[in-house]
Sequence to fold (395 residues):
Amino acid sequence: MIAEHTIEKLLRQQAALAHFGTFAFAETDLQVVLSEAARICAESLGVPYSKIYRYRSVENDLLVVAGYGWENGVVGHVVSQADENSAQGRAYITGKPVILEDISKNNNGNLPEFYTRHHVVSAVDVLIKGSNGPVGVLEAASESQHNFDIHDINFLTGFANVVAEVVQTSERTSTLRATLLQMETLVADKQILLEENNTFASELQHRVRNNLQLVSGMLVKQVELAGNNDKEGIRGVARRVMTLANVYDHLLGHGLKQTLDFGAYLKSLCESLGDFQEEGAFNIALVCEVQPLELELDMVTTLGIIVTEVTSNAYLHAFPAAAGTITVKLVQNDGHATLTISDDGVGFTEKKSSKRHGIGLIKRLMEQAKGKAVLTSANGTTWTLTFLCDTSAKS
Fold:
């Protein structure tokens, strides 16, 4: 059973994320959104301080542009060089999380003077990595020794992704995407929720699922109001929210489990994908051929996002004549599984100068899932995803 204080902390995180989801849809001021993200980051981790550094290329330094808990004079004024002489500089240069469990024992870099005034003992810094390169650094700090674990790192990385999207996209679209990424952190914590008693987890899942459905509805409405340049970005966010909502629909329909039948989930997901495509795409058939396969929830979520990205890309680019077939196929044999997403469209060859980052996203997601993604383009385009699966996994 999970310790009582861990459950309380998780509940605070869910409430804070729900607040941010509502807040971000109504707020268009970038600075206000960043400050709120810093507050949620600190309170969700149970630490008093958090701040966001923005990289400045001309000065080659990191400026604190938003924060929570610090005295006046920190946000907007504190600067660190973007080099390995500081924890935040090392996180920016190496791209890896930097954890200082006890700063009094730190001998590898310079610590900001205001740490002493704030009695900071522990700190962790993670890179804010945008689609076009590093954007800055996200930091959380504590007055007492805090052993930041892998869950804390994943949580901070999710917030770092939020900040990157907010900074690099239009204010309205970035706010919507930030909300999506916050919702994804709920899924990252789902295993903890599922290990708690059935009544508590079921009620929390209902709230999360309802929040996701509300966000999805707001995104669909925003598509109708947005200009042509923003429609596809918002529609892409809506598809990802819908993917997460499908995970929770299956959780609620099959009891509190640590695994899901990915085959059944995939069929349901494919049935929903057509609702989020452009008008005129309805002559494109989406065929789903699957086998039953029990997978852990993290793997289901990762593969669901990939299927959503690839099929949506095929709808948009594979069929200039707006007619054709997309096939999603899942087979498994002796602990190994293969998921293919193919189309009979015009094919695709990645250009080195292309700014599209969907291919890299898919490959990174499969690497995180300890699998492999291969793209081929002959008589259409085919993604082949291979990964290990434990068919004896228990719920």
The two ends are 16 Å apart (CA to CA).
